[in-house]
Amino acid sequence: MDSSGARPQVAGPRAARPGTAGPGTAPTAAEPGATERIEETLLGGERRYTRVQVSEAAGVDRDRAHQLWMAMGFAEVGDDEAVFTDGDIEALRTWDALVASGTIAREDEVAHARVMGQTLSRLAEWQAREVMARADTLTRDTDAPGRAAGAADIAATLLPVIEHLQSYVWRRHLAAAADRILLAPPGELSAATMTVGFADIVGYTRVARHSDTEDLAALLEAFEEDTSEAVVSNHGRVVKMVGDEVLFVTDRPADAAAIALRLTSPDRDSKGLPALRVGMATGRVLTRFGDVYGPVVNLAARLTSLARPGTALVDAELAAALRADRRYRLQHRRPAAVRGYHHLRSWALRPR
Questions:
Q1: 3-class SS of residue 313
Q2: Is residue 67 over pLDDT 50?
């Protein structure tokens, strides 16, 4: 079909969906009815088009459309598999219009697609498991058809609510990011001076090896809740959680110091919180697609590996920025050799 909007016709039997039974293979017990209801609710329509038809309908080159599809993290699809919906055509048209308008640079579109896919994939995986857990609780069915039917009902009810809340959270974060960018000096959109910090759980490998899944989940939940609250309440931003480690940034050195001292407070054990170690460094940082890069990030990671349990180490730049602040005490440590640094200087940060 051309880009006029006419709907392409799909001939022949419906192709198998990626990850499900192939042609000539019996469907699983959960497939009839309920599973397709879930799909149509989430995808906004029936799977009916091949990737060739989608490209033609949207007026986008096939190779480019395939590259975007893969960048978003979706499975490889054969040319004759009818797995796409009207929503896929509309999304591809919208994406192409953004590129044509200059909102997204053509040379950056794959990177944009990859970041969006990676970010939303994690969110979708968690939400899907929550929906299935909720369905199991409400239906108490152990057979596949019963679970799928319960999940279909919950998906139809919750989807509009979840979409609304996600839009609200996204807009709030967008407004906060816009404020930060507007207040930054000109020329600092992709690189800025900030403090980068890491905090990780002491002895996590040993704890994970000797804990069951419920205890490990409780530990990680306590860690993520505590570190996120410590960062945002002191004007910082959580960049990402990586297993037993959190990466955060602040615009002001004093805010970073407040975060570090809270995360290494001696009373953590009495509150049932895991012991942490923190490393922080200040300097020019490359910001790209919500993440941070550069020597300062590597330096903060190395300082974290050197820190003793319950302590925070800072680099020379951050130590110099905090030295005049009478709320903090800095104790110089013996230089150490770590990967990438033969003579790394550091200071232990403590409250005065």
A1: strand
A2: yes
Best CATH choice for the domain 190-351 from the list 3.90.1170.50, 3.50.50.60, 3.30.70.1230, 3.40.630.30? 3.30.70.1230
CA distances from 137 to 37, 38, 131, 132, 155 (A): 20, 18, 10, 9, 14
How far are the Cα atoms of 58, 83, 87, 95 from residue 63, in angstroms, in the given order? 13, 17, 19, 15
Q: How confident is the model at residue 138 (pLDDT cuts 50, 70, 90)?
A: low
Instruction: Give the model confidence (pLDDT) of 218-259 as tens digits.
Output: 888 889 999 999 999 999 999 998 889 999 999 999 999 999
| Nearest residue to 45 (alpha-carbon basis) of 10, 105, 89, 2 | 89
Which pLDDT belongs to residue 328? Answer: 94
Every domain range in the chain assigned CATH 3.30.70.1230: 190-351
Mean pLDDT across 254-274: 92
Cα separations (Å) of 39 from 160, 245, 250?
A: 15, 35, 42
What would the two tokens of residue 288 be? 């790209």
**% helix / strand / coil in the chain, to the nearest 5?**
50, 20, 30
The model's pTM is: 0.72
Give the span between the Cα atoms of 247 and 291, in whole angstroms: 9
- Give the pLDDT band (50/70/90) at residue 145: low
| CA–CA gap between residue 280 and residue 210 (Å, rounded) | 30
Residues 6 or more apart whose CB falls under 8 angstroms from that of 132 comprise: 147, 151
The distance between the two most distant Cα atoms of the chain, rounded to a whole number of Å, is: 77
d(CA 77, CA 47) in angstroms, rounded, equals 13
